[in-house]
Amino acid sequence: MDNKNQFKPSNVIVGISFGYHDSSCCIMKDGELVAAVQEERFSRVKNDKSFPQQSLRYCLEVAQVTLDQVDCIAYYECPEKKLSRQIWMGIQKGASAHYKAKVAAQLTQPSPMDIIRQKTGYSGDIEIVEHHLSHAASTFYFSGFDEAAVLTVDGVGEWSTTSYGKGAHSKLELFEEVSFPDSIGLLYSTVTSYLGFKVNSGEYKVMGLAPYGKPRYAKQIRQLIELKDKGQFALNMKYFAFLQQECMYSEELIKLFNTPAREPESAILQFHKDIAKSLQVVLEEILLEKVRYLHEQVPSKNLCMAGGVALNCVANGRIKREGPFENLFVQPASGDAGTSLGAAAVVYQRRTSKRPSSEKLKSVLLGPEYDSTYIKNLLVSSNATFEDFSGNEEGLLNYVATQLADGKVIGWFQGRMEFGPRSLGARSILADPRGEEMRDKINALVKKRESFRPFAPAIMEDKVAPHFDLDTDSPFMLETCQVKSSLYLPAITHVDNSARVQTVNPNYENRFYKLLSHFNRITDCPILLNTSFNVRGEPIVCSPLDAIMCFVRAEIDFLVLEDFVLSQEMVPELWKVGVLNTPISKQSDEKSIGHAVYSFM
Amino acid sequence: MTMINQYRKLADELARDVSSQNGSGLVKQLIQTGLLQVPTQAVNNLNRIQTEDRVGIWKINAENEEYVRDQSTSKDWPFWSALAGFKKQKTGKRFLFLGESVARGMFYDPIYTPAKVLESLLNTQLDEDVEVLDFAKTNASFETLVEVAQGAKCLDADGVIIFAGNNWLKGEGYLKSFEDALALSSEYKEQGPAAIKDAIERGIAKNIESLVDTLEETFTSQGVPLYWVLPEFNLTGWKEITQYPPSSIASTDQPLWHELRDEAMQLIEQGQFEASLDVIKKMEQGDGGLAAQTQYIAAQAYKQIGDDKAYKEALERARDAVLLNTQMRLVPRITNHIKQTLTTELSRVEAHIIDLAKVFNDSLDLPVAGNEVFLDYCHLSSTGIRVSMAALAQRISHQVQGDDVHIAFESALAPCADTESSAHLLAAIHNAHWGQDIDCVEYYCKKAVQYNASIVDTMTMLMEVQNVNVPTWMNKPTSELLEKACTQIQRYITSMEFKCLDTTLCDGFVKAAQEVGQDISAQLLELQIQQHAVEVKGQHDLLDPYYHVDAFCNTQMVEGVSKFDYYNALSPVSEFDFVSKGERHLSLNITCSSKLANKGVTAAVQVKVNGESVGKIEVGQTWSTAQLDIDAMYIRSGVNRLTLEWPEEHRINTGVIEDNCAMLQARQLPILSPVFGEIYSMTLA
Questions:
Q1: What is the CATH number of domain A8-142+335-352?
Q2: Do B624 and A68 touch (CB under 8 A)?
Q3: N or C: more exposed end of chain B, with fewer CB within 10 A?
Q4: How far is A436 from chain B (nearest CA, A)?
């Protein structure tokens, strides 16, 4: 018998976030990020909030370490501070009996540390990192900047909703914060809820709706929030109900807009588009002002951002164009999923005094991959007909590019899965961006979602200039810019002539880059429509089996699983029955999150 | 200080105090005393279920007043009768048939069902035409029965049959309320596992009372007679998987209990049955009568002595002891407590009770029912169905026409040989998937072949389906299977999918095929190596539920089901299967612990492959990882069994009761089975 601990690597830190929404796990070995993944991808429960047990196992496997070799588990927020905020909510005047009861129940819940130990039997160190520090670390330590100002903005963590900080070398500190209930994230979520979309997941739909509107209600939106000195601001609480009720907005908000809230799934009127636009404009104003304040405090060239609000790529574009900072880095997994990265980074720094990573995060391909042998076995075991391009990459790329040029929609499954909310060429649905009807086709038939939802372009990094007004690379689709291409690109050009561009680098997304190149060779267009590989309400696909189910359900024309191609025409009837009987997203009381009100508990 | 800041300070202080150890104890005390109110988790309220336009999966078409299957419920159809539809208005006598999978006629359904047998008997017996509407549902719960009963009250029934009581053994209701959970924690500390048993039984009794109230209000008070068929359990033919005593006696008495067990078994072997009973009494003093193993040993002694009554009672106690096995999935069963409670409750609404235990004894001279009338733990053979339906028909006939006619079960419909063959094949599958041994599985496989030799073709296809670890609908041979197999097999395969390596079942198939001169062993071996060999896969995860040895009931680490994300050894020997080409050595990587170990002390786990010792692994209280090379000489081509024998001395533990109290206080199911060791990961490469 060999005791494996003698081969133990040094400084193995696991970062974990769970209990709120979008649970995730990552692992760092000697300060290098080895793997990161969201639990929903494995469990197939959208926004899964439960302990990320499958993600942890995946991370250990990739890092080739065992649980007893983990030096520390970093947890992404302080339970005591969070409980303080929850108690505070429960003792507010007018807090509902229901809410008070929920707070009382919260008092008896096992702590996250107890859950970690009970679920895994882990007996090593666990360290707590505060929520906004986790966000801040997730962006600064992976930005590649030696020094930078740091801004984090979200709904709420423990108490903080916005924090201002600065990072230099291995040090990172937060020097000011805005406290709950004053929150830009909750402002956005409240209007999201008023517009009939789900809180905690529908915010990006509001952003997508905004370009169709005019800022006719910006004045009213400004009444919802009062900007104060320094980094501070305050919500005008008469318009918000989330402190007292299971609803985000109050009757006063309805009076302010003089229109009832939109019923979910009902028609979207011009009024709703105008509200979305007004909210977007005001959000940008607030963020620009606070970024300017931050620059006064930390006069750096560099700005790092994280937190759910930092996923607003339209605002990011404006901050970059009009703000005082020259360079901007936004953590690609800016939402709570990304906090596991930050927590691990902070703990690594605490334990070694070293900076976890001096390199800029170049790729978010940190998730599971499935080799061709596995996929071939899977397909051979099934009764599917498929094309095998093993050892013939050129043939595969030609075939797929030709089908794309012919107007076909492709499910593209290659290599390691992306970490974060964006599909970047590993788990993507791809199509020709030039077709007039392509956006409607994919929204309606494939993704089964609202018709206004925009699609993003992916472009060869070295071909950006003639097509988009973009001065730096944008590998993570976190900024918007204007389309200036001579090509007609209706499927990826938003109504305001903007696009949320992904620039594809041959070093990091090699096969995807080659596919773009082949498509360019056939069509003189180095751009593809790239959207996430899922249908509405479903987590992005993770495994080949997930991909097959989504391919069948969405009736995508072709599925490319590594070297193998399946055609929709050849799908066996039994597969259709099997997929029909499989839920799009699993539901589970323990794992699912609510969407009527922000997940304060 | 502003009000906001004052509140914030107060909240900070409260959070700090509550987060401290003293604080959390104080909160619990406040809740227990009722000074702090905590919401009770949602409890199923049986009276709240509303059904207006439907009965089960059937929805009324308002235009022609006909019920038809609702397409939106198609996923559930395999769990219900294949009845396409029925009219709201009856033409002759109408009886409603509600119940669980036993009432469905599982393994025979939809070709041959108890409802069809009853209908045919009543049509020969009663003066009017009789229609029996089959509303039984596989996996029916209390709520299902209430829902169906309420939906069916407008059907103008002449009688309602309920054949249920097996699916009620869920007693987690006591964890819904904080006050109850805290109170139970104190009771448990004082009384041990018996307190949990009482709490579970109180919850079940409450549900039974509520169900009978609903049935009274819906039917008997309206003059519609209620016939309740009380299920029976396969006492002699079914073997419980885990027979160990609850862990709470482990503190000091566990070693003594094991010594007594060995002594009792030795005495039985020596033919000293009376003497063994004295030892068994001492075992019962230690385990409180809550260990199935004690009762099985007692049953053995009573059987040898020839005391049928005591034999039966011991087997019943063994059956009921598993109530406290919170770590495993239990097969459905009716316990003595359920039976007694139900009988008492039904007496107040003057329901007719058909007690199958009595019926089997009266009709077949079976004081203790076994494989003569069962195909597994509770599902009836065709003989069991015919006997029970004949007794039921006799009672209905007496109630409707006042005659005292005797209905012989031989006059009831019987299935054809093909249907019997398929039913026995399904029984083999079900028994294998619920952990029964090769003798049991082989018995049913061979019976299937005896009824119809061509069933071997179906077995071969099933072997292929099970050996490929993809969903059944994706599997290459599934289409052929669905095309060629009869409806009852199709129905089972599509609704009861359970994927595992299925070595016991496949071995049963091989043995049965040999009976008719077919050798499918080479085909099986090729399939196993192609799909599962460590050398083909590169790495084999022994904790993958697919490779657990004992099938469904013993499966752990299932997403959304298991409390722990690690394997708990629920017996002193853990077994895992792997497939190899047997050509080279393999490397075992394992991260394991034994929480029962004393702090700082390690002990050795013996590792065996195919019964041969291949080395030892040191385990302590916390996870540690070890690597072990397994020489090629121990590994054979095909399926191999790897066993871990956990250290004996680790059985002593003083912290179990405290741990369980903490779990109860957190409204979690306590762990009442002993855990001999834990494994976080285990791979072969």
A1: 3.30.420.40
A2: yes
A3: N
A4: 36
Q: Which of B479, B559, B565 is closest, CB to CB, to A119?
A: B565
Mark whether B369 and B267 lie in a shared domain: no
> Is the pLDDT confidence value at B215 over 70?
yes
Nearest to B593 among A84, A121, A591 (CB): A121
Write a three-state SS string for A506-575: CCCCHHHHHHHHHHHHHHCCCEEEEEECCCCCCCCCCCHHHHHHHHHHHCCCEEEECCEEEEHHHCCHHH
Residues of chain B with C-beta less than 8 angstroms from the C-beta of A378: 470
Contact A4 B616 (CB under 8 A): no
pLDDT at A223 over 80: yes
Average confidence score pLDDT of chain A: 92
Name the pTM for this structure. 0.90
The tens digit of pLDDT for each residue in B349-360 reads 889 999 999 999
Rounded distance, CA A126 to CA B213, Å? 52
Q: What confidence category does residue B26 fall into, taking pLDDT thresholds of 50, 70 and 90?
A: confident
Higher pLDDT, B111 or B483: B111
Model confidence over B399-457: pLDDT tens digits? 999 888 899 999 999 999 999 999 999 999 999 998 899 999 999 999 999 999 999 99
CA–CA gap between residue A520 and residue A433 (Å, rounded)? 12
CB A520 within 8 A of CB A526: yes
Residue A98 in tokens: 């229901």
Query: Domain A372-580, CATH 3.90.870.20 — does that match?
Result: yes
Torsion of CA B426, B430, B435, B436, to 10 degrees: -50
B175, B526, B559, best to mutate vs chain A, most A CBs in 10 Å: B559
Q: Distance from B48 to chain A by nearest Cα, in Å?
A: 20
Neighbours of B43 (CB within 10 A): 11
Residues of A in contact with B682 (CB under 8 A): none
Furthest-apart CA atoms within chain B: distance in Å? 92
Domain match, B155 and B271 both: no
DSSP three-state, residue B630: strand
- Answer yes or no: are the C-beta atoms of A210 and A180 closer than 8 Å: no
Task: Give chain B's length.
Answer: 685
* Residues from chain B contacting residue A579 (CB–CB below 8 Å): 473
Q: Provide DSSP, B435-492.
A: T--HHHHHHHHHHHHHH-TTHHHHHHHHHHHHHS-S-GGGBHHHHHHHHHS-HHHHHH
Pick from B679, B676, B681, B680: nearest CA to B596 = B676
Q: Do A122 and B18 touch (CB under 8 A)?
A: no
Total number of domains constituting chain B: 5
- Assigned domain for B586 exists: yes
Q: Hey, of B32, B565, B568, B681, which one would you mutate to test binding to chain A, going by the most A CBs within 10 A of its CB?
A: B565
In terms of CA atoms, which chain A residue is nearest residue B616? Answer: A1
Partner residue opposite A120 with nearest CB, options B565, B616, B626: B565
Strands B85-87 and B93-99: unpaired
Size of interface A-B (CB pairs under 8 A): 164
Architecture of domain A178-330: 2-Layer Sandwich (3.30)
Pick from A36-45, A105-114, A247-256, B664-673: least confident: B664-673
Residue B2: band (very low, low, confident or very high) from pLDDT cuts 50, 70, 90: low
pLDDT at B414: 97
Contact A108 B473 (CB under 8 A): no
Please list every residue in chain B whose beta carbon sits closer than 8 Å to the beta carbon of residue A110.
666
Q: Tokens 């099933």: give the residue.
A: B462
Residue A236 and residue A242: Cα distance in Å, rounded?
A: 12
- Show residues of chain B in contact with A542, CB under 8 Å: none
Chain B nearest-CA distance from A80, in A, is: 6
Identify the pLDDT of residue B242: 65
